[in-house]
Design a protein that fits this description.
- The protein is an alpha/beta fold and 526 residues long.
- Helix 19 links the parallel strand 13 and strand 14.
- The protein has four domains: 179 residues, Rossmann fold (3-Layer(aba) Sandwich), CATH 3.40.50; 65 residues; 61 residues, no CATH class; 155 residues, no CATH class.
- It has 19 helices and 16 strands.
């Protein structure tokens, strides 16, 4: 059976192309060897279940490993202690490979839902007896542990695990307990009494920090592609393709596998990409990227849902994306904490940054789509789009000329504050229908600020760089020219573009061409 790039569930090295997890497994085992109890809290489709399955296999030589999944326990079983103890006992009986006879007998009794002795105290008495009798120390792994986090019985279950941890030096208990999920059970917000508000009340405060990075580096991706290349001999440049994938995904495991899967299964065989060798190229990657950005999947729906749930976050991300206004990164704000937990944002030098270019582009497209209907400048872009494509190539200079004419006609009389905040957004609204369906654009994060923003356009495999900025005088403009020239070197380009929003009443609107060293810069002023 041929291996695939799997995005539908946990990955198995026997069936799927995977990054090498051995270094991560070694680091996690070191925590277990030290007797740590901890949580693995990561965003959706971030490889939690994959690492847990690999970890269980990795530990088998040294420990008795019990791997459970709380999704396999019905919600009704969390409604009261008796039902939970019965369900948990059933799961242990099904998943434990080696049980002492008396432990098995005791668990069978507890699995009877009508048993009068069913209680967490009784359950943990059996578990501690098992730990004492076991030939090897026991590691308990629970996936989707946050499934029933809003139930009192789960809080009580955590309290019992905490008691085990505190007694670990005095009596045999679990060597290590690992709870994995989307929500961090160390910060459960639970309504303990019907007349009480939500409050943080989790006994899982004994958990050690989990600092193992589950995202993929460019080297991780390259290693995965080398395994694929060994099977198919496509002749791809694994280093270049892995860097491209990393640059757009920042190593988000699902997005990495999704792009690889699209290249392998969708791009191969398309017009212009008759075989795997032609698909595993930069051009093939960009085709896969377009599909990945435009498709609807649970990950994007989760992103949209969370922003609708927290309109404050939607507002500040809008400001971040279109004006470059910095957002302080503080988990004391619920909407920042939630977005970070879901993997949509990250902390870079104390400020909020979108986690990866794909999420960023999806957000740009969504925000812009909300303005399509009532946007005059977008409608003009739709009407005029055909004139900007010549022989399959994007004429960026012509786009700038038409944008200046349109922008000045529609908004030339607006005040400076309005134009400074909205100018770059209006250019993206104008550009979107022109490249839609064929190209994509994104902003380089390191250049995004209140005065400067570099927009990269990918169109039919060709890249164009436009520096969008607010005019701050000739000296500032010359620095911008030098910055753009250096940036063009990074992209191996000889031509670049500048779009300046100038609020000086004596400004000269128009487009001019200058030569800077071996570069040609097309400068547009509006």
């Amino acid at each position: 059976m041929n291996k695939t790039f799997n995005t539908d569930g946990y990955c198995d090295p026997a069936f799927d192309y995977m990054a090498d997890l051995s270094g991560r497994l070694k680091d996690i085992k070191a925590m277990i060897d030290a007797g740590k109890y901890f949580t693995i809290t990561k965003a959706r489709q971030y490889g939690k279940t994959t690492i847990l399955n690999a970890l269980a296999n990795y530990l088998e030589a040294d420990y008795e490993v019990i791997s459970l999944d709380f999704q396999e326990i019905s919600s009704l079983s969390f409604e009261n202690e008796q039902s939970f103890v019965a369900a948990f006992s059933e799961e242990l009986l099904d998943n434990a490979k080696k049980l002492p006879d008396n432990t098995r007998k005791a668990l069978n009794v507890l699995a009877e839902k009508t048993a009068a002795i069913n209680s967490l105290q009784a359950l943990f008495k059996v578990l501690k007896s098992w730990c004492a009798q076991s030939d090897r120390e026991i590691v308990l792994i629970i996936d989707e542990a946050d499934t029933a986090a809003n139930n009192q019985v789960f809080i009580d279950f955590l309290a019992q695990l905490r008691a085990c941890y505190l007694k670990r030096r005095k009596m045999p208990v679990f060597k290590s307990v690992i709870l994995a999920g989307l929500y961090d059970v160390r910060n459960i917000k639970k309504k303990i009494q019907p007349d009480e508000g939500h409050k943080t009340n989790s006994p899982w405060n004994i958990a050690a920090d989990f600092l193992v990075d589950l995202s993929f580096s460019a080297d991780d991706i390259r290693g995965m592609l080398k395994k694929y290349e060994a099977d198919y001999n496509t002749g791809m440049d694994t280093g270049r393709i892995s860097e491209l994938i990393y640059n757009y995904t920042s190593g988000y495991p699902y997005l990495v596998s999704r792009l690889c899967k699209l290249i392998d299964e969708r791009i191969t065989g398309m017009d212009g990409y008759p075989d795997k060798s032609s698909a595993w190229t930069k051009a093939g990657f960009l085709e896969a990227l377009k599909i990945a950005i435009d498709e609807i999947n649970p990950l994007y729906q989760s992103l949209k849902g969370k922003l609708e749930e927290y309109p404050e976050l939607k507002t500040v991300l809008y400001e971040l994306l279109f004006t470059g206004k910095p957002i302080p990164y503080t988990l004391m704000n619920d909407y920042i904490e939630s977005a970070a937990m879901f993997g949509f944002i990250k902390n870079v030098d104390g400020t909020v940054v979108i986690s990866n270019r794909i999420f960023e582009t999806v957000l740009y497209n969504w925000f812009i789509s909300e303005e399509y209907i009532n946007s005059k400048i977008y409608n003009i872009g739709v009407q005029e789009k055909n004139q900007f494509i010549t022989g399959g190539h994007l004429d960026v200079k012509k786009i700038l000329v038409k944008f200046i004419e349109t922008f000045d006609y529609l908004y030339g009389d607006r005040d400076e504050t309005f134009l400074e905040d909205a100018g770059r957004r209006y250019f993206m609204l104008f550009l979107k229908p022109i490249i839609n369906g064929t190209g994509n654009c994104y902003v380089e994060p390191e250049t995004r600020n209140h005065e400067r923003m570099d927009l990269v356009i990918d169109y039919h495999g060709e890249q164009s760089i436009i520096e969008m900025k607010v005019w701050r005088g000739n000296a500032y403009n010359e620095r911008g020219e030098a910055q753009l020239s250096a940036y063009l070197d990074y992209f191996h380009l000889k031509k670049g573009y500048m779009l300046s929003f100038n609020f000086n009443k004596k400004k000269e609107i128009g487009v001019k061409e200058i030569v800077l060293g071996d570069k040609i810069l097309i400068e547009a002023t509006v």
